[in-house]
Specification:
Layout: H1 9-25, H2 33-40, H3 44-55, H4 62-73, H5 77-86, E1 88-89, H6 99-102, E2 109-111, H7 120-123, E3 124-127, E4 130-133, H8 140-152, E5 160-163, E6 175-179, E7 182-187, H9 193-206, E8 211-216, H10 228-231, E9 232-236, E10 239-242, H11 244-247, E11 251-258, E12 261-264, E13 268-269, H12 270-278, E14 284-287, H13 311-314, E15 319-322, E16 325-329, H14 333-341, E17 345-349, H15 352-355, H16 378-382
Helix pairs in contact: 2-5, 2-8, 3-8
Amino acid sequence: MLLNAMPWAERAQQEHDAFTQALRDHDVEVLYLTELLQDALEYAPARAQVTRAVLRDPKLGEELRDRLAAHLDGLGPEELSQLLIMGLARDEFRGGRGAVFGLLDAWDYVIDPLPNLVFARDSSVWIGDSVACTSPPGRTVEAELAEAVFEHHPMFAGTKRLYEPGLEELAGGDVLLLAPGVVAIGIGCQTAPAGMERLARRAFDSGFAHTVLAVLTSAAENAAAECLDTLCTLAGPDTVLMRPAVAYSLVARTITQRSDGLRLSHPQPFLEAAAQAMGIDRLRVIETGLAPGRPASRYGQGWGSGFYGGQWDDAGNLLVLGPETVVSYERNVLTNGRLEDAGIEVIRVPGGELAGFRGGPRAMCCPVGREPASMPDENARAA
């Protein structure tokens, strides 16, 4: 669970609206997952897929599961999509029966709500023209909803898929596209080595990747519970934004594909391995504005505690709109100033309640199409 407290929903909605408007103001087409899901649920295979995911919940019991299946079958696409996201409490389900149902308290959930669905990047990530619907720990239904959209919505007809829910643990937030042909995948509490390996093999086989970096996030100082995209933001073709303690302690192993299988290099500093794979001399590091040695978040226990206060303080997880243009929370005053001093345009958006979610602007969206990036200049690489 990424939320460590119930957010102020109205204010969070206002902040999210401001975020999406900022994207539109910069010529970004914004698609809402809720609307895409509702459209997809017009099709029987999509309905069957998402209802199976919900009904697999082992806490339901046989009689309650049968009652719930009948209830879901009678809902229209809009009602069904809302219920799948907002959840269904005991007292809201008038058709409930059985021993399990009778033992539930009034506001126990028959279908759990999905507040973490706001972090769309965790459940799906696009690599080239293919989508990976991932398997983030404890969030299978979210990934199933994303897969139903990309598999059944007419807008995504023919889309190739690199990963499916239910495979080894893999979070979209652990996948970074560093350059054309170069993918970094974090390995830690959100992504298992086996998940990294499967995605790497499929990225190689698809022809999209020539190099994959396996980044050992669990070994980095003060970073054991964070996804790679919170530890590292690629802010420009040769520029990363990172927390100082992580930038120089993060380790990676380079993976390439050979005829006899995958080749794994010896461990290297992440910055060195990334620059080499990207074909540049070095990566410029902009340090986040958090002073070294700052104690953990005032929220203490749960997500974000024990490693510099998590996203609340460290200003990572920025959304890159183009070369040297990023979207950042306005509260990241020191970091935003450092980015602008380095020549990077910063689009500021409010993030009081959204920042409390422990996720930045990048985590809240899943780009399904971008302008093609260019490879590093060949002459510059040879110089």
